[in-house]
Write a structure and sequence with these properties.
about 425 residues, alpha/beta, Rossmann fold, 2 domains, 12 strands, His_Pase_clade-2, Phosphoanhydride phosphohydrolase, signal
């Protein structure tokens, strides 16, 4: 079942709590030696990361058609990693290597033994395959690690079991859940989201709601259909908040890329503070769609089973029929923000950062750590590792042994931060 607190949070759109926190606050840092882990040994690790900084997936001309505003040119085609993004991701991977050398999972000197590290990237986009290669080169430099994936463009069940045909979408359940979300949004849109949409409306198109061609970002949501997705079509939301989420994310990407205020926000002052105000729109859309249990659970069913099997020391067969064997100590999956969102729902995870208004920003990584405790038992800890907004903007390496590592309660393990291995399980949907 979906853990009570996670399901209730979704049902009540308690995203407001998480979204309000994007303007400040944070969770406790996952330091290398908490009291509960005294004398424990880190044995296994599964990392799931978002790719590096990319350009918007829509060209500037297309964004202008949608918003009526000019958008900056990028140094790469739509949806591709930028050179700046490559540098920032390399710094993140170096910091991951340093963290897990310090925690004893990787050798303090020299290279990991053959077969102890495996890196698998989503083949759907160049940015994920390239991110896997960058992380392989930077996690343990000069050790010849390599990332693998399916052929470019192939649907990979590890990252989207629905698109790959490995799971089925319950369309009536999704349609009902989205309909309920529309009703709740109409009745009680969270205040941080209202503020975000109003700020974006004033910035992008102050008179957009009075024009027939918009954009009206403060308007309501409606249900539509995406006939080419997931083979038989999938219901999805459209409307002002969904469009605002894309605008806010593209502005965050421009800031992270190092662009000037005129390029990020058409000359609006203090663009970093502006991002903290508008990015709740992006997190809200994720809560309504990507973190919707009826979508996230089947979509992430293959990856979540693989995470549990890897932590338990069982072999996992990859989509190319290769195998990650029990000798693997560190396994890294290079995916998307959607990958992080679906695992958050599946394991009942939630987080925010004091220095990063986007909880699934580029390079953000979930770490599933298996520890051998002093009493002989084994337990799993989940840590979210990230780069702050200014660290991304300057491509600085984060401190993953300090403030850039956050220990998470595991909702499917009754909120424990150290979950007995045998009790780690994914959420399930309640009966229809």
């Amino acid at each position: 079942m979906i853990p009570h607190q996670t399901y209730a949070r979704w049902r009540l759109l308690g995203a407001a709590l998480m979204l309000a926190a994007t303007c400040g606050g944070g969770a406790r840092a996952a330091t290398p030696g908490p009291a509960a882990l005294a004398g424990a040994t880190l044995e296994k690790l599964v990392l799931v990361s978002r790719h590096g900084i990319r350009s918007p997936t829509t060209a500037p001309e297309g964004l202008k058609a949608l918003t009526g505003r000019d958008w900056p040119a990028w140094p790469v085609p739509p949806g591709q990693l930028t050179p700046h993004g490559r540098a920032a991701l390399a710094g993140m991977a170096e910091a991951l290597g340093a963290r897990y050398r310090r925690l004893g999972l990787l050798p303090a000197t020299g290279c990991p033994a053959p077969g102890t590290v495996a890196i698998w990237a989503d083949a759907a986009d160049d940015r994920t395959r390239q991110s896997g290669a960058i992380m392989a080169a930077s996690l343990a430099p000069r050790c010849g690690l390599a990332a693998h994936s399916l052929a470019a463009g192939q649907a990979d069940p590890f990252f989207n079991a629905l698109a790959a045909g490995a799971a089925t979408l319950d369309q009536p359940r999704v349609t009902e859940a989205l309909g309920q979300a529309i009703t709740r949004d109409r009745a009680q849109r969270p205040p941080p989201v209202r503020d975000a949409l109003a700020r974006l409306q004033a910035l992008v198109a102050p008179d957009g709601c009075a024009r027939p061609d918009g954009p009206c970002l403060t308007g309501g949501l409606s249900l539509s259909w995406r006939p080419l997705s997931w083979r038989h079509g999938a219901p999805h939301l459209k409307g002002g908040p969904v469009q605002a989420a894309t605008i806010a994310e593209n502005m965050m990407l421009a800031y992270s890329q190092g662009m000037s205020p005129r390029q990020v926000a058409w000359g609006a002052p203090d663009d970093a503070a502006l991002l903290a105000t508008i990015l709740p729109a992006h997190a809200y859309a994720a809560m309504l769609t990507r973190r919707l249990p009826a979508i996230a659970l089947p979509r992430g069913s293959v990856l979540s089973r693989a995470v549990i099997d890897l932590l338990a020391g069982r072999p996992v067969t990859l989509p190319d029929h290769g195998t990650i064997g029990p000798a693997a100590r560190l396994v890294l999956f290079a995916g998307h923000d959607t990958t992080l969102d679906m695992l958050a729902t599946i394991f009942g995870l939630d987080w925010h950062f004091a220095d990063q208004p986007d909880p699934t920003a580029p390079d953000t990584t979930l770490a599933f750590e298996r520890w051998h405790l002093g009493d002989g038992s084994r337990a799993v800890r989940v840590v979210v590792l990230h780069q702050g907004l200014e660290q991304l903007r300057s491509a600085r390496r984060p401190d993953l042994l300090g403030p850039n590592a956050t220990e998470l309660p595991i909702g499917t393990c009754a909120g424990a931060t150290l979950c007995p291995l045998e009790r780690l399980h994914p959420a399930t949907l309640p009966p229809a």
